[in-house]
Amino acid sequence: MQADPHVADIAHIIQLAVAPVFLLSGVGVTLTVLTNRLSRIVDRARVLEERLVAALEPAKAGLHADLHTLARRARFINWSITLTTSCGLLVCLVIMALFVGYFLRLDLSESIAVLFIVAMLAFVVAFVSFLREIFLATGSLRIGPY
C-alpha cells in the first residue's frame, strides 16, 4: 500500500526539519554552558564586593581591578547568551517557515535560507564572544600565592 502523497510530503518536510531541530538542541546545550558561566561570574563578583567593604585601602585597588575584569567577562557572556538565543529563535522560524511554506503552498526557500544564514552568523559571533570571555578569564587567572 502506497502512502498518500500528502502524507509523504509532510514526512519529507519533517525530514527537512530534523537537522534544524538537532541544531536547536545544540543551541540549548550551549545556552546551559553560557548561563552556568554567567552564574559563576556573578557569584565571584558578589564575593569580591563583600571583601571590598571590609578591605584595607591597599587591597581595594586589586579588588576593583578584579571586579572590572568580571564585569567585562559578564558583558561578553551576556552577548553570547543574547546571540545564541537569537540563533535559537531564528532556527525555530526556519522550522516554522518549512511547514508554513508547505501548507500555504508558498515558495519560502529564499526566506528560509536567509533565516538560516543569519542564525549561523549569530551562532558564530556568539562563539567568538564566548572565546573572548575565555581569553579574558584565562588572562586574568592567578595561580599560587599572590
Structure notes:
By secondary structure, this protein is mainly α. 88% of the residues lie in helices and 0% in strands. Helix 2 runs antiparallel to helix 3. It is rod-shaped and about 80 Å long. The relative contact order is 0.12.
Explain the layout of strands and helices.
Elements: H1 5-54, H2 57-103, H3 109-139
Helix pairs in contact: 1-2, 2-3
Features:
146 residues; 0% strand; mainly alpha; rod-shaped; 3 helices; single chain
Describe the largest sheet.
none
How many runs of DSSP E, i.e. beta strands? 0
Low-pLDDT parts are none
Query: If you average the pLDDT, what whole number results?
Result: 92
As a percent range, the share of helical residues equals: over 70%
DSSP helical segment count: 3
**Residue fraction in strands:** under 5%
- How would you classify the helix and strand content by structural class? mainly alpha
Radius of gyration: 23 Å
Name the overall outline. Answer: rod-shaped
What distance lies between the first and last C-alpha atoms, to the nearest angstrom? 76 Å
Order of helices and strands: HHH
Whole-number tally of structural domains: 1
